[in-house]
Amino acid sequence: ISDQKPLGCWSVKHGQILTCPVVCNFETHEYIAVHDNKVLRIWKNEDLNLDKAFKATLSADVYRIHSLPHGGPVVLFKGGAVRTLDVLLEAPQQEIENVISAEVIRWSGAFMEGQEPVLIFTTKKGGDFFVYVQKPKLSSLHKYKLEQQESAKPLCFTAHITNQTVTLLCLYSNSSVYQVLIPLQQDTEEEEEVLSKSLLLNLSVSGDVLKGTSLVVLDKDHIAVLGSLPAPGKQPRECLTIWNTKFQTLQTSKELPLGTSGQLWCYEEKFFLIHGKVLTVIMYKCETSSLAAAVGKLKDSQTPDVSSFVNWNTLEDEELMVSFQSQESVALKVQSRMNLRSSRSTGAEETLPVGQLLLKLKDAPTYVLETELRKLMAKAPTPDLQATIGCVVTALIDRCKRSPKYYPQNFLQEIVETRDLSYSLCPDLMAIALEKKDMHLLQICLERFPDIPEEITYACLKAFLSMSEDHLQTIDINLDSAICYVDVEFNDKEVKTEILENGFGAEMDQDMCDTKIPKASQIDESCPVGLQKAALLNAVLHSAYTETFLLPHLKNLPAGQAILFLRYLYYLYVKCSEKVNTTLPGIRSPTINQIMDWMCLLLDAQFTVMVMLPEAKELLSNLHKFVRAQVRFYSELNKIEGSLRELQRLNHLRESQTYSIEVLEII
Amino acid sequence: CLACHPRGARLALARTDGAVEVYNFAANYFQEKVIPGHEARSVESLCWAAGDRLFGAGLGGDITEFDLSGLSAARGADGGGGPIWSMVANGTGSQLAIGCEDGSVKIFQVVPGGIQFERNLDRRKGRVLCLSWHPSDTHIAAGSIDFFRVIDVTSGQTVQRIMLNHHVEKAKRECVVWAIALLSGGTVVSADSFGRVQFWDWERATLAESHTVSTSAVLSLAVSEKEDSIVVGTSTGATYQLQLLPVRLGGQEKRWVRTKPFQFHSHDVRAVAHSPTALISGGLDAQLVIRPLMEKMQKKGYEAALRKFTFPHRRLVSCARKARLLLFQFSQYLELWRLGSTEETGKDGEVLPLCRMPEHLVQLKSKGPEHIYCSCVSPCGTWLGYSTASRFQLYRVRCDGDGVSLSKVPKVPKLLPPAYQLQFSADSDRLFVASARGSVHIFQLLEPGGCKHLHTLRPPSGCSEAVYLLAPSTDGHWLAAVSGDWAIHIYNLKCFKHHCVVPAYDCAVSALAIHPSTNNLVIAYSDQQLFEFSIPEKQYTSWSRALQSRGLPDDSTLLMNQSTLKQLPETARKRQLHAFKICKKFQPLLFMDLLDKNCLVVVERPIMDFKTQLPLPVQQKKFGT
Fold this sequence. Notes:
The structure holds 2 protein chains of 2 kinds.
Chain A: E1 18-25, E2 30-35, E3 39-44, E4 54-57, E5 62-68, E6 72-77, E7 82-84, H1 85-90, E8 104-113, E9 116-125, E10 128-135, E11 140-146, E12 154-162, E13 165-172, E14 176-183, E15 193-195, E16 197-202, E17 204-205, E18 208-209, E19 211-219, E20 222-229, E21 237-244, E22 249-255, E23 265-267, E24 270-275, E25 278-283, H2 291-294, H3 318-327, H4 354-361, H5 366-378, H6 385-402, H7 409-418, H8 429-436, H9 439-448, H10 454-466, H11 469-473, H12 480-483, H13 493-502, H14 531-542, H15 547-554, H16 559-578, H17 592-605, H18 607-612, H19 614-656, E26 661-662
Parallel strand pairs in A: 11-15
Antiparallel strand pairs in A: 1-2, 2-3, 3-4, 5-6, 6-7, 8-9, 9-10, 10-11, 12-13, 13-14, 14-16, 17-18, 19-20, 20-21, 21-22, 23-24, 24-25
Helix pairs in contact in A: 3-5, 7-9, 9-14, 10-14, 10-15, 15-17, 16-17, 16-19
Chain B: E1 2-4, E2 10-14, E3 20-24, E4 30-35, E5 45-49, E6 53-57, E7 62-67, E8 72-78, E9 84-89, E10 95-100, E11 105-111, E12 114-120, E13 130-133, E14 139-143, E15 147-152, E16 158-163, E17 177-182, E18 187-192, E19 196-201, E20 206-212, E21 218-223, E22 229-234, E23 238-246, E24 254-263, E25 269-274, E26 278-283, E27 288-292, E28 307-309, E29 317-320, E30 325-329, E31 333-338, E32 351-352, E33 359-365, E34 374-377, E35 383-387, E36 392-400, E37 403-408, E38 421-424, E39 430-434, E40 440-446, E41 450-457, E42 467-472, E43 478-483, E44 488-492, E45 497-501, E46 509-514, E47 520-525, E48 530-534, E49 539-540, H1 542-550, H2 562-567, H3 570-576, E50 589-596, E51 599-604, H4 607-611
Antiparallel strand pairs in B: 1-2, 2-3, 3-4, 5-6, 6-7, 7-8, 9-10, 10-11, 11-12, 13-14, 14-15, 15-16, 17-18, 18-19, 19-20, 21-22, 22-23, 23-24, 25-26, 26-27, 27-28, 29-30, 30-31, 31-33, 34-35, 35-36, 36-37, 38-39, 39-40, 40-41, 42-43, 43-44, 44-45, 46-47, 47-48, 48-49, 50-51
């Protein structure tokens, strides 16, 4: 709202009072107002005089009108009865029953549940609070009693509907937000079911308690509370706060020194509130809730660095929480109180040199070792941090070598994922991973290490190709690079949606068991390898290499595997060519140049094998045909490009010169 | 203005500088004849009368007959009513009616050798801007400002006077009737400055139909011979066709319907004409546009293509190959330029740096009001000649260092001007002057600055038309000359004798040249045919015969232009090579000549260059401006 001019203004006659908020009927673009409790007015934007607008006098007092985007307006009477506007306008004088007795409505809200409007309101009678859920179209009514709370009473309500369940949030006078779940699909006719509530959030800011006056729900993890903070010796400061309910943190706050009316509205990612004498509009944006965001550590989204992603599934580990807590930093601008379940003190007193420490831990029990190493890594970045981590990894690997049963898979993965390691820092890591057949770790290493020797790259490739599909399905692998283009038939639709929502490969191995792997022989268009193998091979395609060093190794690739790999490269190539920009969708998916280079390399290395092998014949001929077609196509493009460039050149020439001597070759 | 020949064979056109041009429809709209302008002559109106005689009248108040074989304004007669705004010939072509500034309409009788004043018709106040004869010659409609009237020719009385600005809100402005047509059924069609085309029943003085075709003035109007189609031109550059169509399919009742809008011009459409098969329009943007009517065309092809004539169909630039000079001919002056040069070489498409910039050597202004007919510079660059309607001038050009001096050659032999074409021989020894009645004069050029008449070549059978194209052979042995009757005569210059005539071909010759090594005459006709004629053997060459039997490649043949060919890979290029070296990199070309074996000079004339020199068109609201 840049200039606060009214677009329209209507007023009731002197002596009349508007008794409930005016709403807009989104379907007819009409405004609906109630004055003097009973008189309904309906008018359009172009109507100038409210007095001449449509008028209907009702037989009972109206509490509020709720307008729903696809459901039309619903009228809630003070007696608790609910009517849709359509029904009401058919017979304005119809009798309105009294649903509540001696109770006063405190709050009401309306939602759409499928095609049906649902109206919820809370009432108060003495110290008791009741919740009513009404579906006016089905004439169903449910009454619930709210669980009593000692020494506190609800101040403000808000609600939202998800999955047939109403979530009612109540702001209590003890500065806590409670959550009440009300199932909609309930046919029990029990009288006055008592609803239990659960504590969602304590509104405390560094010891001070925010006295909230109103709250709104922003998304599933965020709420906004308007309230005041007590200030010693001064007037309480009013402020608008956004809270993360998942991590129990205060996300941000804004002081409102001029005071507010205590009311807060929120539409389409904007807050509306009365600040002093003006209506203030504040835009907001809720990032996807993440721990990093909650502790104020979210990296700049401009540089999406994979290392900033945290695997939430490991959050169960106490230790990780500790490591995070130890990181809990000064950078946290908004002083937040984290309700962490563990509050172990940080081991900052450790000052031993790394070498000594490692030496000391050489024979320590496994869990001690890991704990100490974590502590070591959690230290603030120092110039030799990389080297320190290298030492840590080396220490771990040494132990692996010594005791064959020991292999800290998750810990290693975590280190590789979150730290900027390189091959040379921990030369044995990949060898041990190969030995242990830790495909996921190899994948991560291939994607991240800039300096993998060609020998190891080849070993990985060979390992990936030789691995059976069935076995791969049981392994946790990041499928991001392949999931977007490999055509996989899912039996279970649910699985698919979940994958998309998560956005990263979080322990999908169990879900992927249902995946049908199309056999290479089935159709030409289908992917010759499974999703997991494709993702692993993509990691190989991504790794850096020098042709001359890789070629000798590639010559040793068994013929069957070479053909399978070539088939997969061909498949990628065809997939790439489907798009105008010749890129594959997805994160870290191979580029056309990588595909081409590997294809050339493979054909070079396996030339004699390819010529000899009968099963390669068809593949090679198809590949040749396709490449030829592409060459033809691009030569056509060349022509167009040449003409266009010529045009541009001519245009350029014309601009300046009225006389020129040009070379014109006549062919 | 434009005037279509009644039988639709030719179109006469007058430009604001007084030049008159004749286009031949049969010869592919070839610009057959050009009578250069004259400062004092303005031609507001042109009409064909008494067969093929062309008359023009203008604001000078004179009626001029144009000599189409001698390409000059022949006889004039005073109209006697001040500036003449319009002139029309009656259906038989025996009488001319002129509308004058003083409001009079006068009738002239076309007689052999001239015109004769016959009588005045009823004179009313207000200049007569447009006139139209009834096809039966009984009445004349005359348009003025705010009204038009219909005059009975026999009695000379005005029988109806119709005001046009009644019931119009804009009545405070005057309504100029820019064009009028009287149809055989008694309908008067008027086009006015309010943008209306109106159909009146003049006898009852009622308005039958009114079409507002434009927000600005409708300036010109022409009716087809069958009176079922009208073309109008407006001051926004748009032209519209109105057609008389049945209200219901197969029904009897017909109405005029505005059918096709065209926007070919950027400025006022000052004149329109309606040939049986095409809409023709000419405007202030100097363009003549011929838009063939698709429904009148048998098949799609070149005949049906839209034509825009921007450049004259004759040579305005001549080139001194050896001296590397270009002579540009403007209407009243000549400009001599020396071409720039370079010492570099380069690859295809490169622009080479100039070591010497092109240099404007001299501007030569023609004295007197007459415009220049033709001009030429000799290959060695030392001689320069031009001709106007009454004078022929020869100059000696001397370049000494940076300075250039021109000296007029004294005592140029007196011959009957004008010269229609000048051509120097390849050794710059002789000058050939194309002249009237098919004759070519040969001058011997003498050092240090003189000339004498050597011989006059004439076709043995005689000819009434002027010679308009000349082509001498490089060895100085032969001369080919084309006259207005399209006959090509070849003369032997060694013995000044007529050698032979190229077999008659019924189309205008647009260009011809003699091959320097074979002495074969190559002729291009305006119907896009190419012939090669062997002068020594006096017959078409076998190549020419083969070409005629096979025909030139038509539209369906794929001929790749040079830039496309250059894009192709070597093997494909070899397959696609052909004899026609098409180069599309240039803007519209005014002139092209070979300087030497490896050097080609082309003169571009971008349309935008002269569009920018025109006055601003009527303001039109365009989206986004």
